[in-house]
Specification:
The protein has 359 residues and is α+β, with helices and mostly antiparallel strands. It folds into two domains: 195 residues, Ribosomal Protein S5, domain 2 (2-Layer Sandwich); 151 residues, GHMP kinase, C-terminal domain (Alpha-Beta Plaits, 2-Layer Sandwich). It is built from eight helices and 14 strands. Strands 1, 4, 5, 6, 7, 8, 9 and 14 form an eight-stranded mixed sheet that branches. Strands 11-12-10-13 form a four-stranded antiparallel sheet. It has a two-stranded antiparallel sheet with strand order 2-3. The longest helix is centred in the last third of the chain and has 21 residues. The chain is globular. The model has no long low-confidence stretch (mean pLDDT 93).
């Protein structure tokens, strides 16, 4: 339990209101894979915050007539009740109740939606839990107006982490660091921080096109995959690799070394899936078309001296990252060479954004 984020007020003021936030998904360049109890990462991660792929959370709240020790909420996802989401939300509320005990005194109506298709290869849990946590912090600020912005966003990131580890990074943008690293004095395992160092202008306005290779539900959940890192024969080496790759990526971002950036981003994506393929039990989430796209990207980059590269989350779908000045050429490349590998020819264009917005 972290005492810094415990709500200590005994104020039981009758309140009501509406809080609404929009929060983006993010794509990790240095991957978080493997966790300790209480959603603590085994290694630090660095991510880019997206712009067009986001979730909205709207909470209507009012004080209960009768105080008890039970949560009272209803949840609508895109206008419909989702029992499985309610079960996950109940688990989340139980994790955070010591930090947000006021939720037990409120009747909540929670409405959420995504700007992108569910199970599309974009981290909807990251954007959803971050938007929800920001909305919860609005309620806390209603009760305690003395909260400053620094505390507000740190605690929001702390709460989001307890819903989904990667969600803590969606609170901070455009580049976020989560997990302790000796490279960054403010880095820690409890919440994310905005990347503090200089970023070379060559990395401004990076585009991210998500190629939807497989829109089906993953056969293996990310939580299950994270757990398999405990006792994995390559776990210690992977943690060392992540720390070293973060160090190298930090150099690339500061110095404008795009080739080094590409090398680290792609080896991180492949290492993530290598850990899945060598765990016990082992599993494979990439699909044949994933590999075909990767080979097409490598061929295109070599022939055209392009700065395009790919990354992957824990699934089959591919994120293509490339600079703004290559946008038209890459769009033509996608249309002519890659769409046949996408389910129903679907893809999503996005770019790097700055973070969440209060609505």
């Amino acid at each position: 339990m972290n005492k810094n984020f415990i709500y200590n007020s005994s104020d039981n003021e009758n309140i009501n209101g509406i809080s609404e936030w929009q929060s983006p998904s993010n794509i990790a360049l240095v991957k978080y894979w493997g966790k300790k109890p209480n959603q603590i990462p085994m290694n630090p991660s660095l991510s880019l915050t997206l712009s067009n792929c986001y979730s909205k959370a709207r909470i209507s709240y009012q004080s209960k007539n009768v105080k008890d020790n039970n949560f009272d909420f209803s949840l609508l996802f895109e206008g419909k009740r989702e029992i499985s989401f309610e079960d996950k939300l109940f688990q989340f509320f139980n994790r955070i109740k010591c930090y947000c005990p006021y939720l037990l005194n409120l009747k909540l109506i929670i409405e959420t939606s995504n700007s992108f298709p569910h199970s599309s290869g974009i981290a909807s849990s990251a954007s959803s839990y971050s938007a929800l946590s920001l909305s919860i912090m609005d309620i806390e600020k209603h009760l305690n107006p003395e909260i400053d912005d620094e505390y507000f966003f740190k605690k929001a990131s702390f709460l989001a982490r307890l819903g989904s580890g990667s969600a803590c990074r969606s609170i901070m943008g455009p580049i976020s660091i989560w997990g302790f690293s000796e490279l960054f004095s403010e880095s820690n395992d409890l919440y994310a921080n905005i990347y503090p160092n200089k970023v070379n202008s060559i990395f401004k306005n990076i585009n991210d096109t998500v190629l939807l290779v497989d829109k089906g539900k993953k056969e293996v959940s990310s939580s299950f995959g994270h757990d398999l890192m405990n006792g994995h024969s390559f776990s210690s080496d992977r943690i060392k690799q992540a720390h070293n790759n973060l160090k190298q990526l930090n150099k690339a971002l500061e110095n404008g070394n795009y080739d080094l950036f590409i090398k680290i981003v792609e080896i991180e994506a492949l290492s993530l899936h290598a850990m899945m393929m060598t765990s016990q039990p082992y599993f494979i989430l990439i699909k044949p078309n994933t590999l075909k796209i990767i080979n097409e990207v490598w061929k295109y980059r070599k022939e055209n001296k392009s700065k395009i590269c790919f990354t992957l989350d824990a699934g089959a779908n591919i994120h293509l990252l490339y600079p703004e000045n290559e946008y038209d050429k890459i769009q033509n490349f996608i249309s002519s060479n890659l769409l046949s590998y996408c389910e129903n020819g679907e893809f999503i264009n996005d770019k790097i954004g700055n973070g969440p917005n209060k609505l």
